[in-house]
Amino acid sequence: MSSLDVARWQFGITTVYHFLFVPLTIGLSFVVAGMQTAWVRTGKQQYLRMTKFWGKLFLINFAMGVATGIVQEFQFGMNWSDYSTFVGDIFGAPLAIEGLLAFFMESTFLGLWIFGWDRLPKRLHLATIWLAATGTVLSAYFILAANSWMQHPVGSVVNTATGRAELKDFGAVLTNSTAIGAFTHTITACFLTAGMFVAGISAWQLKRRRAEDVFRPSMRVALITVLIAGLGVIVTGDLQARLMTQQQPMKMAAAEALYDTVGPASFSLFTIGSLDGSQEKFSIRVPGVLSFMATGELDGTVEGINNIQTAEEQQYGPGDYKPNIPVSYWTFRLMIGFGFLMALLSAVGLWLFRRGRTPRQRWFFTAATLGIALPFLANSVGWIFTEMGRQPWSVYGVLRTADSVSPTVSTGNMLLSLIVLTVLYGVLAVVDGYLMVRYAKAGPPEPAEADDTEPRQAVFTY
Known about the structure:
single chain; two-stranded antiparallel ribbon; mainly alpha; 6 strands; 16 helices; 462 residues
């Protein structure tokens, strides 16, 4: 493999791995904050036990997210120095704000939340978790703003004398339509992830009839969260598809393996044919759906890969501007499919738990527990589609990925770092899985153990 291939594999592995923790951190921070709010307002012990149980799992996940996220930024200077040189004036600004403002905010107030249970007044302590949760959202926005500039570069110009992109309008970067679309879609996906996580663990405990006073309300909160967030993901994903069609038409065409321009365009749920989609033997299609996703109209025209390839050759010069078609096609469908499965599972669960009932259908508890994997799979394939569908560009229409890799780092060095990081992340995955399973099985603290929240009186010795 070339150094470019190894660098792409390493960045892909570390990015997908890191993003396993990010959505759960964001979504679960608000779920925990909501549970603590219910305790402060009602004084009911079950809400305090819920807060402490889910809060412990949230903290384990947060720590893993921080550890894996640090590696991400170092890769820009290590494997992608030409990219960093070209975009540093723009890309560095939102990342610097994220680190100096948002991350410090969430980590500071999270520290106060961890150590302030018996030291701060209840309402002040409650404010710390809400501020920490707000910090996670701000952090997500600045990072997505940086990534969205790669998808749709705005507020900048390329200085031909220096060979670098220069920032001209930071406001345009922060209000990029792509950033707003990605942010709304990502945040709703975060709540979907947290909801399925809480629902799956609650189902496992309820199947064994453990701490029902804690896990029944946890299950109900989780199922409602999944249903609402699932609808949000559908709506924001639909809006994002139109933005993608306008800004990256090749990505939308690749998502359907649509080679020739057609209107109206159907959406294939499942296709049997050549791996790249150029030949089709059998397909299950829904008429007009791709047209609606791309244009907002059932009879809209959608450009095909061949037409876009010709247009981009005329605009950017000779080259292959097609992404990996099989990866784009199947990750797009898997992302949507996993999302609909989660929405269906939540709707069934709400029906089975209606009016205070406890389901007798043990299959549902098993399905809900296994469903924990669904949002993580959906998030992973969604990011793979987003990033691989943009190829061969690292900054769309401005800088190619082949021109972004470090020229002085050898393939052997990159391969060594890839192996080391993969092994290290594998070890971290085992540790994280062990801790999560251990504390999830342990259940919530007993009422007497949980109620250690009264502020201590200061004692002075003379």
